[in-house]
Amino acid sequence: MAEFWELVKTYQGYGIAAFVIAVFATPLAMRVAQRFGVMDYPDTFLKPHARPTPYLGGTAICLAWAAAMLGTLWCHTVEWQLALPVLLGGVAISILGLVDDVRGVSPKMRLAVGAAIIAAVLLTTGAGFRLVASFCDPLGVHFPAYVAVPVSVLISLVVVLGACNSANLIDGLDGLCSGVTAIISLGFFLLASHLALWGYSPEGDPLRLVLAIAMFGAAMGFLPWNFNPARIFMGDAGSVLLGFNCGMLIVLFAERGIFRWVIGALMIFALPVFDTALAMFRRWRSGRSIFEGDRSHFYDQLVQRGCSVRQTVLISYGLTVIYGGLGLLMMWVDEKGPVIRTRYAVPLYGLIVLLTAAAAHFAGLTRPEQQAGRQTASSADETPPSPA
Residue 320's domain spans which residues? Predict the structure, then answer.
């Protein structure tokens, strides 16, 4: 335990710096948005919030996160060959989200540019190169590098893109995305701390720790301004950056080719994945495109069933803590050898996925969306749901 607190002391400065910068940069972003009319205007369907709301919160998150990452380069905490591509990629994908917030970007263009940014980061850092090996090697299945590496990069690209999309989709209520990703980043930090104390990787451990603590500080610094009733929204500029961080951390846990750390990280990130899967399933059952925007996410359904916005967000925080705790269970599995450990992890998390799906089904969350039910209700004493 003493070693853990020494590790926290080493890295806490980056989280504190990101938190302080986000706290003070967010009201500045609010004023800039109001000055130049970068506002999110309500409508009768996807944006039922009460009043026009500033839409540049993501720039404050990006500034806080980038400052913390630059601090690691200045202090030589992380090797620049690893940190710099991730920093530049995160800033680039946040700028892409900002352009979409302000001017609008076609989905195909956004997907293509986002994929190019992420691919460049993966190829430059080598993140995710051993993803296939981490799953297949413990099972005694070995592929040559010229097959395993390209497939690993492709899967890693899908994972990071999916994390960006999931974080973007869960950004649907005041304080939801910022609070959920803050809890997720704390879970990532605990998992990365365990690996660092174990001596998992001299090169990768510092990067994972910094990414997690910087994301935690930036999200927490933004949350007071974004919690219901929100005074500013993060927009895509913030949500895709937070998703990019989560996705990169997930693939970075595959560095040593031990798959249980990857699925442990995926479990920590389970709530955004569950929400995305549930929304796409309901759209499919309704006969609509799975990419069509709607208000059929699990948090929308909770509000439709009578929960207030704050209650729904707090329930989501609680679920994130539960999934985070389940993801961290791998820290206490102590059988001999990585093969046994992976064999414990896969069925355990497979069972959790099945139980989650069953719970969603019996709670009626998987029923096709009804046309009359698209409008999202709100509590009498709180601001209606909004893309926060």
Answer: 2-373
Q: Give the amino acid at 238.
A: G
Question: Looking at the domain assignment, is residue 382 inside a domain?
Answer: no
Give the whole-angstrom CA distance, residue 344 versus residue 213.
Answer: 29
Question: Is 27 contained in some domain?
Answer: yes
**Pairing assessment for the beta strands 39-40 and 53-54 based on DSSP bridges:** antiparallel
Torsion angle (degrees, nearest 10) of CA 131, 156, 57, 292: -130
**Which of 110, 96, 246 is closest to 178 using CA atoms?**
246
Kindly report which listed range (60-64, 86-90, 361-365) carries the lowest average pLDDT score.
Answer: 361-365
Q: How far apart are alpha carbons 387 and 239 in whole angstroms?
A: 10
Which helix (H) or strand (E) element contains residue 52? none
Helix (H, G, I), strand (E, B) or coil at 54: strand
In a domain, 385, yes or no: no
β-bridge mates for residue 53, sequence order: 40
Q: What is the pLDDT of residue 283?
A: 83
| Residue 239: closest CA among 110, 146, 84 | 110
Instruction: Report the pLDDT value the prediction gives residue 373, as an integer from 0 to 100.
Output: 41
Please compute Rg for the chain using Cα positions: 20
Return left, alpha or beta for 126; rule: phi > 0 is left, psi -120 to 50 is alpha, else beta. Answer: left
Contact (CB, 8 A) for 345 and 138: no
Angle at 275 between CA 183 and CA 225, to 5 degrees: 45
Residue with tokens 């869960």: 170
User: What is the domain count for the chain?
Assistant: 1
pLDDT at 387 over 60: no
Dist CA 8 CA 82 (whole Å): 21
User: Which of 127, 148, 92, 149 lies closest to 265, judged by CA?
Assistant: 127
Measured distance CA(132)–CA(202) in Å, rounded: 22
Residue 85 lies in a domain: yes
